[in-house]
TrEMBL record:
Transmembrane segments: 12-31
Disulfide bonds: 74-78
Short name of one Pfam family: SCO1-SenC
Family according to the record: Belongs to the SCO1/2 family.
Protein name: Protein SCO1/2
Residues at which Cu cation binds: 74, 78, 164
Superkingdom: Bacteria
Thioredoxin domain ranges (all copies): 36-201
Amino acid sequence: MVHKLIRNRFAIIASLLIITVIVVIVYQFMWGSRQLPVIDKAPSFTMSDMYGKPVSLQESDGKVRLVSFHYTRCPDICQATNLNIIRIQQKLKEEGVLGNKTQLLTITFDPKNDTEEVLQRYTAERNIQPEGWRFLRGTPEQTKEVLDGFKVYVEDSGNGFLTHSNELFLLDGQENIRAIYKMGDQMDNEQIFKDMKALLQ
């Protein structure tokens, strides 16, 4: 009798463990949830957007942010990256979280050439939604400080173009870096979108 009770108890525990594993797998499959450990603290900064309005990382109000870097004269990877972020922008808008719970930030490597007017024209031509996606520029000193804070490098190639890192960063509502992705054609838009949603839970 005792052995039977013990066997039944172990059977119940094993069944509960199996059910728990199944629930976790189903949740991850449906919602794309995965572990997103804190990688580092994002640097504090205040820069101006394409309309000259100041944007501070500390004013995110708990928003989940995707931070990328580019310059408008970039002939390849920056353009591919922004096309992918446009698709992410659309998915966030359809979910009703663009601007109010999530924000996209793109910081220029090249504030000298990427003036407010240039950024305004660039964003208008690509139907970028300013309520949820801000293109930022700073002084050369501010730009260097932000790049150093994110451990992003940029170098003048001497031919009118820049050589630069190809990462973008996912930040939670406390300005912690929770994921780092590759730019350009290597971007997994669906995974980035799922990760952003997971941080909103």
